[in-house]
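pinned: reference chain
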Amino acid sequence: MSRCFIQSKLHITDQNGQNQTRFAIGDSIHFTVEVINTSSKHVNFQTNQPGFDIKLMNNGQEVWSAFYNQLFMQVMMEHQLAPGESMRFNAQCEGNDNQGEPLTAGSYQVVPELVLFLDNKRLSPPASEDILLK
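pinned: its C-alpha cells
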C-alpha cells in the first residue's frame, strides 16, 4: 500500500481547544499531530514509543521539546487504522523552555517529528508552523 494513503496534520490550540498561532507569555500551548487513513482500506503501520515529538525552535535553536531529557525503550508497536480513522499524538507546553525558564516574546517555529513506518518507509511529518508569543 502506498504511503500517500496516510496523511499527517499539525494542530496548535490554546487551553480551550481553539486554533491559535498567537499566545501570551505563559499561556499553555497544545499540540496535536494527527495521522489519518485517507484510503478505503485498513492500513497497518508501526511506531516506536512515544511515536512523535514536538520542538519549539527560536533562531534555529531548540528551546523546548515535548520529551526533553526523556528516554524511551526502542520497541516497535503495530497499529491499524480503518478507512477514515485517525490517531492523535498530543503534547503541551506550559510556557517554559527546556530549562524551566519562561519562554520570551518572539516568533517560534513549531517542528513536529513523527516516527511512523508504513511499508518499511518513514512517513513524513506534517509541515512546521510558526507561532508568536507576546
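why pinned: The first strand starts at residue 6 and ends at 13. The mean pLDDT is 89.
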